[in-house]
Amino acid sequence: MVLPIVAYGDPVLRKKAKPITKDYPKLDELIDNMKETMYGAYGVGLAAPQIGLPIRLFLVDTAPFAEDDVFTEEEQDALKKFQRTFINAEIIEEEGDEWAFNEGCLSIPDVREDVFRQPKVTIKYQDEAFNEHTETFDGLIARVVQHEYDHIEGILFTDKLSSLKKRLIKGKLANISKGKIKVDYRMRFPLQKKKR
């Protein structure tokens, strides 16, 4: 089932998410619904806060980036195959010189800005079966993981912009929270006026 994506301005996007256990109600169904929601919105990642749940769960599937011919064949292959569910993730280390990449977010439609992040991330997490993993990712995969991880920490990519950039997009962000935007996927707007 496709779920509505929570828009910028909703307080749930600012909460530090809580860990979950194996007995979280209907977890498999939730993960399936999140995948359907992410693919339906042409996203490469989706975190539980974006569907209104302040829990430490996010998905990443970088396959859409594999279409981009700026990457080597090897990189494209890695992007095509990368699909993960991260539960109770904790970043252990971020390394390397920061690099800029144009990021967007399903909760902040029509806003794309260059964001600086470190190119390498080591993260500890549990998969759908609650098996523990510690893995290191780099490049674009690391970036998507960092972006989604920020969501479970209550951080949005717009927080990483300069104060000038933040001022320039302030009006756009206000319109998003009021629902004054056209999107081709289901959204829930925090400040949208109810029709009488």
Chain-wise SSE layout:
Elements lengths: L4 E2 L20 H14 L4 E3 L9 E5 L11 H9 L1 E13 L3 E7 L2 E10 L2 E7 L5 E7 H14 L10 H16 L8 E2 L8
Parallel strand pairs: 1-9
Antiparallel strand pairs: 2-3, 3-4, 4-7, 5-6, 7-8
| CATH third-level topology | Peptide Deformylase
Q: How many helices does DSSP assign?
A: 4
Strand order of the largest sheet: 2-3-4-7-8
Largest sheet: 5 strands, antiparallel
Q: What radius of gyration results from the CA coordinates?
A: 16 Å
Structural class per helix/strand content? alpha+beta
- Poorly predicted runs are none
Coarse shape:
globular
N-to-C terminal Cα separation, in Å?
Answer: 28 Å
Q: Provide the helix percentage.
A: 25-40%
Summed over residues and divided by their number, the pLDDT gives a mean of 95
| Topology, number of strands | 9
CATH architectural category: Alpha-Beta Complex
Count the domains: 1
Amount of beta strand: 25-35%
List keywords for this structure.
196 residues, alpha+beta, Peptide Deformylase, 5-stranded antiparallel β-sheet, two-stranded parallel ribbon, 4 helices, globular
